[in-house]
Amino acid sequence: MSSEKIKRANLLVEQCRYQQAADLFLEVLAETPEHPVALATLGWCQTNCGYSDQGEANVVRALQLAPDDDFIHQVHALCLGAQGRYAEGEAAIRRALAVQPTFSPYLANLAIMLRNQGKAAEAIAAAQQGLEVAPENIICVSQKMVAQIELGHYDAVEETIRLALRIDPEYTIAHAAHGYLRLHRKEYADAADAFREALRIDPHLRWSREGLTQCLKQRYPWYAKAAGFRLMTLSKNALRWYVMFAGLILYGLFRYVIDAPPRQTFYLELPLLIFFPTVLSTFTIEPLALWVLTYDREGKHLLLPMQRQLAGGVVGLAIIAICAFVVAMTFALQRQGMDALSIFVIALSVATPIPPLSKVMDCDLGFPRDTIWKVVGIASVVGLICLKLALASRAGMFPLEVNYYSGLVLIIVNLATLGASTLLPAMRFARSPIR
User: Where are the transmembrane segments (predicted)?
Assistant: First the structure.
């Protein structure tokens, strides 16, 4: 009786009907409480139903009952991988491979664990080893293919894509990979067609949706022209910008302190004049492109609700900040320095949340996403306080000189949020949406 229930439960697992499968495994365990395979597979079902701790506990219990069972070690690896614990998952799948060193599904899972740790070259080697045993293992092919794209091996990936489509012409990941290959070659029309084909097969594959979104954004001439500036500011060269801004701030503050009255405001305004447009332009490029896509007949269906909301929020803040910046420049050109500085502070206060807010969707779920939201909160609070001080100073409630210190605080906060907005998206717990 138990064997029949296990067969039915395994069929439900293959159909991803995890809750129903879990119910059947519980019935099996009611009859045979120490059935290790049933315990392990129940743990996998519970993990997929959102009960990770309970699921892992059942898998660990199964391992205690059958410590040399390679299948249970594989299930343990899958459960750990589902929680983003890829290093532990790698160790678990290697224990399964110690029992069955040439079993291609285990090698495919090893490739998954390695790739999600950023070890793309090792993932390719593991996937290739699996293909030598089973040349038509589509999971090994897909992991090799995605890892090659991550490494930028576009010439090699073309052959892997052909192999995948030869095995399964309707394999959505292969069509998406073909799209990224064409995207890399700037063949945007062909890339878009490949992504559309991938989405026809699987409308929910995020990798394809992101690729097609990128293709559609390339239609905007201003987006392509801004790419160099964006990459220069947010890549490894970001440190140079931070050092330059910090130097300008310290020099301006030093000159303001040592100069005899009447003190020159130019050296304090200069960092604002350079820093403000740089920050604003850098971090509004992507949200602006996404916001424009919300009015595109095809593009609006590719964006998640939160993407649309965040893009609209960033663009709204940018419009207000730009208007304030233009007013400030008008005062500055009329040599009304104190008035100009207060408006600069208003503009920068409004723009302060833009860098982290524009990067929320680029951060993985978990620590990076939670942290970037905290950064957004801190930036918003500081910006709001400085905004109120600037408005109060213009109303005569505080001396206008308070804006010097508000501006300095805002620049320091923006330097910190720039760093967080650059580093947090780089903390990739999953190298891509392909598992």
Answer: 239-258, 270-293, 314-334, 340-360, 372-392, 404-426
